[in-house]
Design a protein that fits this description.
This protein is α/β, with parallel strands linked by helices. The protein has seven helices and five strands; from the N terminus they run βααβαααβααββ. Strands 3-2-1-4-5 form a five-stranded parallel β-sheet. It is globular and about 35 Å long.
């Protein structure tokens, strides 16, 4: 029986475009078909924003987003009111709205967040890397 995890946007981008940037345990986790991989709707928004400012990896992923998630075996996690309320109510100084939403979704859904970003530890969530 596998585990369920939420991928940070950079973890998704690296899994698809630069898997050598992933840690060995994360690469193994992503390759295990028993695991349930989730990607937040906020990641689609963040990737579109990265595309708008010229990120070449974002462009490639954006053009085939749904197919990429399917190929990775990942499902989209929609943003709910509970997620939005949690993201907006945290008093931590971390201001990135994408990170706040990812942390709120991980917290609300009881999911570990796959992320190399140590700043997310400020939210008291479980982070795998």
């Amino acid at each position: 029986m596998g585990v369920s995890v939420l991928l940070d946007t950079h973890a998704l981008l690296w899994a698809v475009m630069e898997p050598e940037k992933l840690s060995a345990p994360i690469l193994e986790l992503l390759q295990d078909p028993q695991n349930h991989l989730l990607v937040s709707t906020v990641s689609a928004w963040e990737i579109a924003a990265k595309f708008r400012i010229g990120n070449p990896h974002a462009k490639a992923l954006l053009q085939h987003y749904a197919q990429t998630l399917a190929r990775l075996g990942a499902q989209s996690l929609p943003i709910t009111d509970a997620h939005a309320l949690k993201a907006g109510s945290w008093t931590t100084g971390h201001r990135d709205p994408f990170d706040r939403m990812l942390a709120a979704q991980a917290h609300t859904e009881g999911l570990p967040l796959v992320s190399a970003d140590l700043a997310l530890d400020l939210f008291g969530i479980q982070r795998h890397w």
